[in-house]
């Protein structure tokens, strides 16, 4: 017979627990829903992060430029040494041939002396160390053997130097590759962040930069700062001719530039050779520590590690290649931490 008893009701405590748990779940879900939109960084936050990445990329770029410059220098030095070795070997062969011809003539007459026999069969260094045998040589033969000895020693030194420079070159190439990867990684991360912005946000950032650039250009036109020397002004004017050229890391003209690429290229147009990197350019002239003492055309160095450089343009403005995604333009000197000027 079926039971007609009413089902047991859940206890009040259990109902309370379930209700509380459900309410908590709803609250957490609601908080998560509300928090989700705030996870996306704002336009200004993205810009701050991107600017930081660009600064780090530029620092790596100057290290890349330094390694690249060192690589090119080593390649030239190695080529010069190798040419010297090749010419030295030819000279040594000629010296040996001359001694050999003398020996052959003596052999034909049956009068080859023991000194030449020793030379032809072994090392002249060892031979010349034997003072007793020197008496058996003519003055001309002694001089010839001395030249051979000196040439052999010179060639050995050149070959040893070339070997060391080749090792240095291999290490420099490794460093160059590491610096390049670091730059590319920073730029890729910056681009990833920029891709999180909407088209409208990107346009707003671009418009803001354009307004700042126009304002700086206007201030330059109104400026009355003293001008630098003739060649310095020629370099500055060369840089002005590249306004609007794109920033490309590692580039030194004539159609694209990084910061030190622009300054070194511009001075080259004026017939003045300065180092390739901003850190080296910081030591290329007289330092000017007060902004009020700067002249148009002076180099201006930024950041504690000296990884950025531009030209002073007057009226508190600089002309430089700022960073990836920008072009050669005027900008306020106060946009970056000023260290000092350099008068070439």
Structural write-up:
- This protein has 344 residues and is α+β, with helices and mostly antiparallel strands.
- 62% of the residues lie in helices and 8% in strands.
- It has ten helices and six strands.
- The chain has a six-stranded antiparallel beta sheet with strand order 1-6-2-3-4-5.
- Strand 4 and strand 5 (329-332) form a beta hairpin.
Key traits:
6-stranded antiparallel beta sheet; disordered N terminus; 10 helices; 344 residues; alpha+beta
- List the total number of helices: 10
User: Unreliable stretches, pLDDT < 50, 5 or more residues?
Assistant: 1-5, 12-37
Record field, number of beta strands = 6
Helix-strand pattern, N to C?
A: HHHHHHHHHHEEEEEE
Structural class: alpha+beta
Gyration radius, rounded: 37 Å
Q: Kindly report the spatial arrangement of strands forming the biggest sheet.
A: 1-6-2-3-4-5
Give a short account of the largest sheet. Answer: 6 strands, antiparallel
Mean pLDDT: 81
The N- to C-terminal Cα distance equals 111 Å
Q: Based on CA inertia axes, which overall geometry fits? A: elongated
Question: Strand-residue fraction?
Answer: 5-15%
Give the helix proportion (percent range). Answer: 55-70%
Any chance you could write out the topology, listing elements then pairs?
Layout: H1 12-35, H2 43-108, H3 114-121, H4 124-128, H5 131-134, H6 139-194, H7 199-222, H8 230-240, H9 259-269, H10 278-281, E1 286-288, E2 299-302, E3 308-314, E4 317-320, E5 329-332, E6 338-343
Antiparallel strand pairs: 1-6, 2-3, 2-6, 3-4, 4-5
Helix pairs in contact: 2-6, 8-9
